[in-house]
Write a structure and sequence with these properties.
Length: 106
C-alpha cells in the first residue's frame, strides 16, 4: 500500500502479551513499528509476524521447582516452577542467555 502524502504510514497492530512467546511477538511488532516510524524500513517490506532472521525465539529454559507455604497455615501450599535461565536465539545464530544472576550475550 503506497503512502499518501500527508498521511501516516500503515503500521501493524501489537498483539496482546499473555505468555513469553506472545511477549516476544509484541516486542518484535513494536520494534517493527519504530523502524517504520523512523523510516528505516518500508512499511510493506516486512511482516513482523513472518520469520525474520533478527527475531529472537526461546531455545531453552531451565526451571527449579519449589514449594511456597502459607505463613499462617503450613498445610496450604503451592508448587512453583521458577525460571533459573532462558536462552534465546535468532536465525543468525546470535544468542541471549538470561540467568537469575544477569544477562549474557553470545
Amino acid at each position: 500500500m503506497p503512502n499518501i502524502p500527508g498521511t501516516a504510514p500503515p503500521v501493524p497492530s501489537v498483539p496482546a502479551a499473555v505468555d513469553l512467546p506472545s511477549a516476544l511477538a509484541a516486542i518484535n511488532a513494536l520494534r517493527h513499528i519504530v523502524q517504520v516510524l523512523q523510516s528505516q524500513i518500508n512499511p510493506s517490506s516486512q511482516n513482523p509476524t513472518a520469520s525474520n532472521p533478527a527475531d529472537f525465539f526461546e531455545k531453552n529454559r531451565i526451571t527449579k521447582k519449589f514449594r511456597i507455604y502459607n505463613p499462617t497455615d503450613s498445610s496450604q501450599y503451592v508448587d512453583v516452577a521458577q525460571i533459573v535461565s532462558l536462552t534465546f536465539e535468532n536465525a543468525l545464530g546470535q544468542k541471549i542467555v538470561w540467568t537469575q544472576h544477569g544477562m549474557l550475550n553470545n
